[in-house]
Amino acid sequence: MSGAVATRLAELGLTLPEVVPPLASYQPAVRSGSYVYTSGQLPMVEGKLPATGKVGAEVTPEQAKELARACALNALAAVKSVVGDLDRIARVVKVVGFVASAPDFTGQPAVVNGASELLGEVLGEKGVHARSAVGVAVLPLDAPVEVEIQVELIP
Fold it and tell me: Are the CB atoms for 77 and 122 separated by under 8 Å?
């Protein structure tokens, strides 16, 4: 893996993981024209969820923010699986983060900042994006957070 993005990942001490296998009938990422859309990425690390439960109850907001970083790294791996080279990313267009939230938890934006900040650290200005941070009752496998991204490719 060579190129500017690979170099930046190495500088940050990050390793692009293997693509997380789908949990159901879908693809981890799909290209349509000059865009790649990822499926929702769970914070799997080496095939396992490091934590489960609701943010604001079993999982702290700080833990969830770190898990959102893992989701974004998994999303980049999914993009790479489709385009072969992350240097082909022109920009991240949209990030959607889902946070499994305790009933009184309202800090979803701060949790999803974990994904947004990782994309900025890795891609610089190309990582600046529009975003939604949504609180939900439950996520697959009782994951605390799930993130999907949409990227535009260099023509």
Answer: no
pTM comes to 0.96
Give the CA count within 13 Å in the CB-facing half-sphere of 133: 18
**Interval 53-110: pLDDT, tens:** 999 999 999 999 999 999 999 999 999 999 999 999 999 999 999 999 999 999 999 9
Q: What are phi and psi of 41, to 5 degrees?
A: -105, 125
Q: Answer for the pair 116, 131: CB distance below 8 angstroms, yes or no.
A: yes
Alpha helices in 14-107 (DSSP H): 61-83
**Closest of 49, 38, 63 to residue 129, by C-alpha:** 38
Q: Measure the CA–CA gap between 75 and 15, rounded to whole angstroms.
A: 13
Task: Report helix, strand or coil for 148.
Answer: strand
Pull the structure tokens for residue 22. 């789908």
